[in-house]
Amino acid sequence: TQVVPGLLLARMIRRELPECHVDIGGNFFQRVREELCANPGFFREFTHSVIVGEGEIPLTGLVEALSHRKALKNVPGLLYLFRNKVAYTGEGPRQNLDDQAMPDLEGLPLEKYLTPEIILSIRASRGCYWNKCTFCDMFLGERVDLLSPDRLVAEIRHLRDRYGIRRFYFIDECIPPAHKKRMAARLVEENLGITWSANARTEKVFTLPVMQLFHDSGLRLLLWGLESGSRRIMELINKGVDLDGRLDILRNSAQAGIFNFGYIFFGFPSETREEAEETIRVICGNTDIIHGYGRSVFTLGKQSILKDRAQEYGVADVVRNDEAFSADLSYETSRGMTREEVLQIARSCSEICSKAYEDPLWMLLRHREYLLLYLSHHGIEYVRNYRLPETEVAQS
């Protein structure tokens, strides 16, 4: 997470430059807005204000208010300290992605970033078109909005020509399939000479011709929300995909030359060890089409659908975390694995999958953005088959 280093930096700036107004924002702070409203000390220690929700219009309003020494009460979407209490100005208007300014990287020392070439985060959409997964709370404060293919092409061309950037990591929660096809077609038309990666759901529309179009447009890495190998758990998650057909979709992607990275997690309330082992078998039994994976342990988000239907999902007791500004809740389950059993199966997954994949290069990369860079330069077969010498593996 960027929250801790971000807050540390904000605190340092505030102490070193007391004349500056420090403001922060992001999805995380939207999810802990209630806690911020109840904690004036946060605004004395770290930051003068926090923008919650979409920040383009509020940030402009904040700059104008500060420049003209106006009151902050008219700046939308703002939390700030007023008479020793936290004031909230309420949700403000939102700006469409097409109406936003081009990315401006002037003044940033791009040559000092610890990477052979810049891999830039970018987005083609806002919000999640599915927005029904019971474990997720990333949707909070978001609405679905699409960047038009023409504007996307203009933005990428600007970043390529002005800053020499050719690697793009789309951070969208999930680009709608039809929109992803349109943007890929435009990228092929323009032949911009870029490569990119994105998140995806295993939707039936991702046929082999579609995946080939994606590859032709520069797509080299797809990060799929596979979540679980258990049919029951997938139904509880309400993922909304065809469990029987998803391997065919991954096969289409692999055949087109795209590296498939699967997200999985353990410990969904009521999950049994046998169901968790199903997930491991899906990963290890399909290393030819699931080229890499990332595993995590379930956390109960304060704003998730599951939290409001906790008992229905086997959550016996929900308590707030003692950690300040945690976006998650502590809980006890009435059935399924205990917390210790979940952690044990997660460790077991790492050991089993390490053997199944034979300690590949991607498993040693701590940032998936670097995986895109390797794929861009060397291709999928090189990345899949490269193995570090045993001495280097032992040292890592």
The CATH class label of the largest domain is: Alpha Beta
Mean pLDDT: 91
Distance between the termini: 22 Å
Give the helix tally. 17
Largest sheet entry:
6 strands, parallel
Q: In the residues, how many domains can be counted?
A: 2
Shape: globular
- Total number of β-strand segments? 15
Q: Which range best describes the helical content: under 10%, 10-25%, 25-40%, 40-55%, 55-70% or over 70%?
A: 40-55%
Q: In terms of per-residue confidence, which ranges show pLDDT below 50 for 5 or more consecutive residues? A: none
The CATH topology label of the largest domain is Transcription Regulator spoIIAA
Radius of gyration, taken over Cα atoms and rounded to an integer in Å? 23 Å
Strand content: 15-25%
The helix/strand class is alpha/beta
Strand order, sheet with most strands: 5-8-9-10-11-12
Name given to the CATH architecture of the largest domain: 2-Layer Sandwich
Commentary on this structure:
This protein is α/β, with parallel strands linked by helices. The chain is built from 17 helices and 15 strands. The strands form 4 sheets. The protein has a 6-stranded parallel sheet, sandwiched between helices. The chain has a 4-stranded mixed sheet with strand order 1-2-3-4. Strand 11, helix 11 and strand 12 form a beta-alpha-beta unit. Helix 7 (177-190) crosses helix 8 and helix 8 packs across helix 10 (246-255). The chain is globular. The model has no long low-confidence stretch (mean pLDDT 91).
Structure at a glance:
This protein is α/β, with parallel strands linked by helices and 396 residues long.
